[in-house]
Amino acid sequence: MRSSSWIFTPLSTGALRVSVLAQYHSPNLTQKDERVTGAERRSGPVAVRKESVGFPPGASISPTIGVGCAASEGIAPALWSEALKPVQESTGNELSATLSREGYAFVPAEQVRDLAARLGQLSDWEQFAASWDDLHLDTHMADGGRYRKRRHAVFSVGADGAITREPHQPHFQGVDYNPLNGGVQRWFEPVTPQVGASDSLRTLLILCGSVFGTLAPAVAAWRVEMHQFRIEARRGELGQPTPEGPHRDGVDYVLVLLVTRRNIEQGTTVVYDLERRELGSFTLTEPFDAAFVEDGRVFHGVTAVTPLDPAQPAYRDVLVLTFRARRD
Q1: pLDDT tens-digit readout, 214-251
Q2: What CATH architecture is 1-328?
Q3: What was the pLDDT predicted at 278?
Q4: Cα 234 vs. chain centroid, distance in angstroms?
Q5: Alpha carbons within 13 A on the beta-carbon side of 19
Q6: What is the per-residue pLDDT across 74-129, written as a single tens digit (0 to 9) for each?
Q7: What is the mean pLDDT of residues 297-319?
Q8: What are phi and psi of 78, to 5 degrees?
Q9: DSSP label at residue 128
């Protein structure tokens, strides 16, 4: 397999502005829907609505992003460039700030789409999302479950802006991080060349590289694992997004982004501190709803999904991108 390369210009601190107004359900609040700005309370964000996301009118144009489309398994490279409009430095990067302060951040779909659209293209999103219909059964489930399908790929993302798809390789987690399925090298079907070269994936890698790079500016390069997951729910078999329970992934940062949700209920993400005390919970319900997690600071888990109509297909599709500083 030939490697593939993209180039992007990482965003400096303050290149994104995400200001949110959150609603919290907490036993500590006297009113169930009391609102606070940002994430000033650590107990249980269940919904976040946009206050403002944007770039001020008349902002100057940054250097362009030169991109080389993936040249993988016969796909010819293509070049194009895009211009970013930075906000003023004083506004800061509120998404990175929230993640730094809280250890996690729930960002609703509208904001994720707005941010992504300012960094790249999402024009192939429908084809990208449809690729979850072509995942393969995860045969490594120690609980015997047959409810999880997936594909996997590894990328290298450099602080200099280079994004390269690595040769196909196994996924590994130690048993300290995954007591159910850890301790073995798990080979999964690779992400297809078309999906690996898609505009949507490239844009989301750029977004994550910008957010996480702001928090870790000394990192020269990231090892990024891409996971396409489908969790199916059937009559008599719960769909378990995290069968290992609350866990850490053994990386530095994680993005979990909802792709599709069909005919299911539950699937609530719960975040805990390192003492296993609950910090918050939220449910990804709309495509592009996303959770950003600083893996070394919090545990996260997702409750089982169940079908609303057991006679119809029921599933939860998510994209997971894990970022770990390269040490080689």
Answers
A1: 999 999 999 999 999 999 998 888 888 777 778 888 99
A2: Sandwich (2.60)
A3: 97
A4: 26
A5: 11
A6: 332 322 223 223 322 222 378 999 999 999 999 999 999 999 998 899 999 999 99
A7: 95
A8: -135, 150
A9: H
Tabulate helix, strand, coil % of the chain (nearest 5): 15, 35, 50
Q: Would you give the end-to-end CA distance of the chain in angstroms?
A: 21
**Cα 281 from Cα 308, distance rounded (Å):** 21
| Structural tokens at position 256 | 């979990």
Q: DSSP assignment of 187-214, as one string? A: --PBPPHHHHT-HHHHHHHHHHHHHHHH
Pairing of strands 305-307, 185-186: unpaired
Domain boundaries of the chain, sorted by first residue: 1-328
**Do 268 and 324 touch, CB atoms closer than 8 A?**
no
Distance set, CA 207 to CA 37, 87, 289 (Å): 23, 15, 14
Identify the pLDDT of residue 242.
Answer: 77
**β-strand partners of 114:** none
CA 257 to chain CA mean position, Å? 4
**Dist CA 302 CA 241 (whole Å):** 6
- At position 239, the amino acid (one-letter code) is G
Position 142 scores a pLDDT of: 54
Residue of 111, 102, 5, 9 whose CA lies nearest to 50: 111
Q: Which residues of 67-83 are buried (b: 16+ CB within 10 A; e: fewer)?
A: bbbbbbeeeeeeeeebe
List, in sequence order, the alpha helices (H) in the chain: 94-102, 109-117, 125-130, 193-196, 199-215
3-state secondary structure of 90: helix
Query: Using CA atoms, how far apart are residues 163 and 180, in angstroms rounded to an integer?
Result: 32
**Dihedral angle sign, alpha carbons of residues 249, 253, 255, 256:** positive
